[in-house]
Write a structure and sequence with these properties.
The chain is mostly helical and 205 residues long. It has two domains: 54 residues, Arc Repressor Mutant, subunit A (Orthogonal Bundle), CATH 1.10.10; 146 residues, Tetracycline Repressor, domain 2 (Orthogonal Bundle), CATH 1.10.357.10. Helices cover 77% and strands 0% of the residues. It contains eleven helices and no strands. Helix 2 packs across helix 5. It starts with a helix and ends with a helix.
Length: 205
């Protein structure tokens, strides 16, 4: 038995369901994933999904909460750094890139709901996912206020540009690797260089 199998066996049924649902929802949208698929992928009886989560809608929301909490915890960590706003912004962007390298498809969940939220999750998106965007915009605003960034572009638009670079990279990661002839490490270096180049263009006086 390998380490992954041992780890999977050690998980509780709710954790197995949540883990499997995250993988499936990351590849397909809410309507495309069935309870039957989630049960098969998690190795549990489909009745347990309703028992633990109250159905697919609530399970999907739990998946979104778990994924967005990774960003929010990262924000708390960045806030505690004794760095300038621009340094914090670079650290935040670099950390997001590294985080998504480890779980490249999970970013689909966040940006799918941020860009085109399903009506039943619209309040969730406004209350939680927008905080992910706003944190980056606040760092840009602080960097402008202290003179580290000099730009006429609105802070929220700078944040959207940074997020767009990251999102496009991971949504098209397979094609980028093939077209650009990148290996696993150098393609991430390329992303970080692209992000750093954009930030550097804003900090030139």
């Amino acid at each position: 038995m390998n380490d992954n199998q041992e780890t999977q066996n050690a998980l509780s049924s709710p954790d197995k369901i949540l883990q499997a649902a995250t993988r499936l929802f990351a590849h397909d949208d809410f309507n495309s994933v069935s309870i039957k698929q989630i049960a098969a992928a998690s190795g549990v009886n489909s009745a347990l999904i309703s028992y633990y989560f109250g159905g697919k809608k609530n399970l999907y929301q739990e998946v979104l909460y778990a994924e967005s909490d990774k960003f929010l915890k990262l924000q708390d960590d960045i806030r505690s750094h004794s760095e300038s706003p621009l340094q914090k912004l670079r650290s935040y962007v670099d950390s997001i890139a590294e985080m998504q390298l480890e779980q490249p498809y999970n970013i689909h969940l966040i940006y799918r709901e941020l860009l085109s939220p399903q009506p039943m999750f619209e309040n969730y998106v406004k209350n939680k996912l927008y905080r992910i965007h706003q944190f980056m915009a606040d760092l840009v605003n602080d960097a402008i206020a202290c003179g580290e960034i000099v730009t006429a572009i609105k802070p929220t638009h700078v944040a959207f540009t940074l997020e767009g670079i990251i999102m496009f990279f991971f949504l098209t990661k397979g094609q980028i690797r093939q077209i650009g002839n990148f290996d696993l490490r150098t393609e991430t270096d390329y992303l970080l260089q692209a992000l750093d180049s954009y930030l550097s263009s804003l900090s030139q006086k």
